Amino acid sequence: MAATETKIFDPNDPATGTGGAELLDSTVVLRGNQWHMFLAGQAHQAGAPQLFSATLPPGEPLSATGWQLRRYVSGELIPLTPPSAPGAWDSDGGRHCPAYVRGFDPHTSREVERIYYAGGAEFLWGPYTIGFLECDGSVWQPQPEPVFRATQDWEHGSVFEPNLIYDDGKWRMWYVCGSHHENYLAHGYTESLDGRTWSAPTLFAPLEMQMFDFCVRPRGQSFHAIFSRIASGNPPSPQAGLWHCRAEAPHGDLSQWSTPAQIMTAEDRGWHSGPFKPSFAFDEPNPDRAFIFFDGTYNTGGGGPFPFAFTLGCLEIEIPLS
Questions:
Q1: Is 33 exposed, middle or buried (0-12, 13-18, 19+ CB in 10 A)?
Q2: Considering the domain boundaries, does residue 250 fall inside one?
Q3: In this predicted model, what pLDDT tens digit does every residue of 170-228 receive, in sequence order?
Q4: Number of compact structural domains in the chain
Q5: pTM of the model
Q6: 82 partner at 20 to 30 Å CA-CA among 88, 140, 166, 243?
Q7: What does the alpha-carbon distance between residue 63 and residue 37 come to, in Å, rounded to a whole number?
Q8: What CATH number has the domain bearing residue 135?
């Protein structure tokens, strides 16, 4: 497939306009006549990650370029909502991997906008639970408690990287569970009528796939998904990178989706390698063209326990309707 890659944010590249902030984990949505990007990150590459936003100019079509971060007059990044109080479920470990979704809330009988995310109570690397912010019309309001926790043995006590859609009267969530330090990742699926109380989760994909982030979007009469497989070893395995599949319905079992096709490898491009956390949207003027936003990392050559930087990029690629 012909494709174009664009770097959007890099904390060490002044041309990307981050001001040194590390910004990743994007979720992109058209709200009204304006494209919005919600992200997780660290404004000063330290401390608990928070959620931020960027926009394209009103009326402009979706693009990999032109994103403007929301800032105070002073230049400081504006968080979507203030940091949680000490001891809260998403305080010291911060807020990670946001996923925007619009759906129906039967308790209020109205459509709502939510940003689900993983929160850590104590440590940056988890364990995590999943909760959400809800828009009250102008302000994103945090919820006092998470709405989804690990309950199954195969989840290894931590759930994160939520991806959601609302379809056929249900909130549907694909999510990651496990932990990197155990070298264990699993992918789960669950459903809800209100986005708060969830069905018993099921294992979505074989454990050996090392799947990370199954992002689903409707198009026409079908559903398309982009997901990542995690890089391991040096060099990384050929299976690591981004993959695409499709189905006639948003199934909770990978075996009911089409045979996945790889669309990006984990090859080192300098400013990123081992892409993960894809989120995508289709180009409205050209519905065969997808904008896939993804995270990457590169070695900074510095010292310390984590001599890497996180980047955000976009892959523009043609994905035929069938």
A1: exposed
A2: yes
A3: 999 999 999 877 889 999 999 999 999 999 999 999 999 999 999 999 998 899 999 99
A4: 1
A5: 0.95
A6: 166
A7: 11
A8: 2.115.10.20
CA-based R_g, the chain, Å: 18
Residue 192 structural domain: 3-7+75-318
Distance of CA 14 to the CA centre of its chain: 24
Query: Vertex 67, ends 77 and 47: CA angle to 5°?
Result: 30
Q: Which two tokens stand for residue 88?
A: 């809260």
Instruction: Identify which of 322, 191, 176 has the alpha carbon closest to the alpha carbon of residue 251.
Output: 191
Average pLDDT, the chain: 93
Sign of CA dihedral 272, 273, 276, 282: positive
Torsion of CA 184, 291, 24, 175, to 10 degrees: -30
More reliable by pLDDT, 305 or 190: 190
Helix (H) / strand (E) containing 308 = strand 308-318
Nearest in space to 36 (alpha carbons), one of 10, 57, 22, 16 = 57
| Size of the chain in residues | 322
Cα 125 to Cα 119: distance, rounded to the nearest angstrom: 10
pLDDT tens digit string along 124-158? 888 999 999 999 988 999 999 999 999 999 999 99
Q: Which two tokens stand for residue 218?
A: 């409707």
Continuous H helices in the chain: none
Query: pLDDT band for position 68 (50/70/90)?
Result: very high
pLDDT at 284 over 70: yes
Q: How confident is the model at residue 179, as a pLDDT?
A: 84
For residue 238, being part of any structural domain is answered with yes
Token pair 């009267």 in the structure block, residue: 169
Return the DSSP state at 77: B
Q: pLDDT tens-digit profile of 20-50? A: 999 999 999 999 999 999 999 998 888 899 9
Say if residues 127 and 55 touch (Cβ distance below 8 Å).
Answer: no
Give the Cα separation of 13 and 16 in Å (integer): 6
14: left (phi over 0), alpha (psi -120 to 50) or beta: alpha
Q: Is residue 33 part of a domain?
A: no
The one-letter amino acid code at 45 reads Q
